[in-house]
Amino acid sequence: MTSHPDPDEALAGLLDEIAGQLGHPVPAHLQAALRAVPRHLFLPPTLWLRDGNGGHEPCDREGDPDRWWRAAYRDAPLVTQFAKSPDGHRAPSSSASMPSVVVRMLMVLNTRPEHAVLEIGTGTGFNAALLSYLCGADNVTSLDVDPELTRRAQRGLKASGQRPHVVCADGAGGWPPNAPYDRIIATCAVRTVPLPWLEQTVTGGLLVIPWDTPWCNFGTLIATKQADGTAEGVLAPYGSFMLLRAQQVDAELRAVIPREREGRQREGQQPEAQEPERSMTGLSPWSVAGNDLDAQMYIGLRVPGAWHVWDTEVADAHTRLWLADGRTGSCARVDYDGQQTSAFAVAQYGARKLWDEVAQAYAEYVAAGRPGVHRQRLRITPDGRSTRHEVSVVNGTVA
Question: How far is CA 91 from CA 48, 51, 80, 255, in A?
Answer without folding.
Answer: 11, 14, 11, 11
